[in-house]
Design a protein that fits this description.
By secondary structure, the chain is mainly beta. Helix content is 6%, strand content 45%. The chain has 2 helices and 23 strands. Strands 3-6-7-8-9-10-11-13-14-15-16-19-20-21-22-23 form a 16-stranded antiparallel β-barrel. Strand 19 and strand 20 form a beta hairpin. It starts with a helix and ends with a strand.
Length: 444
């Protein structure tokens, strides 16, 4: 026993000294880390795994990298104070809207004495970090984090956080259902078109390599559902009117959403993508005390047309049932799933759609002009959209914007924009709002 205690004491005494010695197995002492201007090769490497989406942060002009380019770290971001004026409504002061031109939040009817508003808002700042290890090799691995404000509060919010390796990506990302290249031209408005398919998801996905222009992708999303409270308000069974017939309380949602797409693109920028998603919504039928399931889905055609080098056209058209969590203007509205008119105790997936078209014109090196239009619409929910619940009283919305950007330098941009929107309800009419705004954006 004495011998064993002595041996253990020697091991304990030696362990810290051994642990403090650096493991030089994977260290190349000839490689140094330094600050460097971003070369075209490094920029291409970083762009391969950066988000492709509206309001994204461009690749920074400088990076920290190793001399052999196997390790790259980029720190980027932008700050863009925005000055604007609302005409026709006071959308800026509505909770959940503010700097974002959220057409579903336009007050209906417009309040007297509150039909205009002036604002100065610096709360659209973003900061991102990207690290690439083994860059330029098949085993390159990327970590990406993006933080920023939410346009209404100075509080910092995590917006993106993911790791990518050999086509696989896992973390907090823009869902695969969002076509970042085709959903809209650039805008000052951080919200964007009402009919855009756009949401952040906790997702695991795989994107294939390019096969002579063909690519495909598939993913698993943590689902979010926006359903009615379960009180039946239809007309076929008057005795159930106003009584709760379904509930999602104490019912686990165990099935992920499954988005996927296939696309074909050319080197000139012309491309077309078909996307689809399938989801399962679980709820409890209170009349028969049973757990039931209902499927939701969405399909989308999107792409770009480049008739000449100076012009890019954008198109996105989406339709489905119960996929409101992915549709810009309907996300958050308790309308994607509502009690069935024909079967109290059952729910039905609401039909909805979103359409965006737009164009970008780059007639000079420093100038860009963009125009766009959008519509989002939902059907078969009129019983659940009443005047007493005006924020959720939504039938359709229209959105239009035009802007001009001037790149003063590679890191400083000025922009001017006009945005118009209309929200229509089922039984209390509609209302418009217009916004004129300008920005100065400094990009790191």
């Amino acid at each position: 026993m004495k011998t064993l205690l002595i041996a253990l004491s020697l091991i304990a005494a030696c362990a810290p000294a051994h642990a403090s010695e650096p493991d030089s197995t994977y260290i190349d002492h000839n490689v140094r880390i330094h600050l460097s201007r971003t070369s075209p090769e490094v920029k291409k490497t970083l762009e391969q795994t950066r988000p492709v989406e509206p309001q994204s942060v461009s690749v920074p002009n400088f990076v920290i990298k190793s001399t052999n380019d196997k390790f790259i770290m980029a720190i980027g971001g932008h700050v863009n104070p925005i000055v604007g004026y609302d005409i026709g409504n006071d959308l800026y002061e509505v909770d959940g809207a503010g700097l974002g031109f959220v057409t579903s939040a336009i007050p209906v009817p417009a309040e007297k004495g509150r039909k205009s508003d002036y604002f100065i808002n610096p709360l659209n700042a973003q900061l991102d970090f990207q690290i690439v290890g083994l860059a330029g090799t098949p085993n390159a691995i990327t970590a990406y984090i993006k933080i920023g404000t939410n346009n209404n509060s100075p509080a910092i919010k995590l917006k993106r956080a993911y790791i990518s390796y050999r086509g696989f990506t896992g973390g907090q990302v823009a869902t695969l259902m969002q076509d970042g290249d085709a959903c809209q031209p650039p805008t000052i408005d951080p919200q964007g078109p009402c009919g855009m398919v756009s949401t952040t998801a906790y997702e695991l996905n795989y994107k294939s390599p390019d096969y002579n222009g063909f690519r495909w992708a598939i993913g698993l999303d943590m689902p979010s559902y926006y359903a009615s409270s379960g009180y039946y308000q239809g007309h076929d069974y008057p005795k159930y009117r106003g009584e709760q017939v379904t509930t999602v309380q104490n019912v686990e949602q165990m099935t992920p959403d499954i988005p996927a797409w296939v696309q074909y693109g050319t080197a000139t920028g012309n491309r077309i993508r078909f996307s689809a998603m399938l989801r399962n919504f679980t709820y409890r039928d209170l009349l028969q005390d049973k757990v039931r399931h209902i499927a939701g889905y969405g399909v989308m055609l999107s792409g770009n047309l480049v008739p000449c080098k100076a012009v890019t056209l954008y198109l996105q058209a989406a339709y489905g049932r119960g996929f409101g969590a992915y549709l810009q203007d309907i996300a958050g509205q308790p309308l994607s799933f509502v009690p069935s008119d024909s079967k109290p105790g059952y729910m039905q997936a609401s039909p909805m759609m979103g359409i965006n078209i737009g164009a970008s014109f780059n007639f000079a090196k420093r100038w860009q002009i963009n125009i766009m239009g959008s519509e989002s619409r939902i059907w078969k929910v009129s019983d659940y959209c009443t005047a007493k619940d005006a924020p959720a009283n939504y039938k359709y919305a229209l959105y239009g914007a035009a802007n001009v950007f001037y790149n003063i330098t590679s890191y400083l941009q000025w922009g001017l924009e006009y945005v118009w929107g209309r929200r229509m309800t089922w039984d209390i009419g509609g209302a418009n709002d217009s916004r004129i705004q300008t920005q100065i954006m400094f990009t790191i």
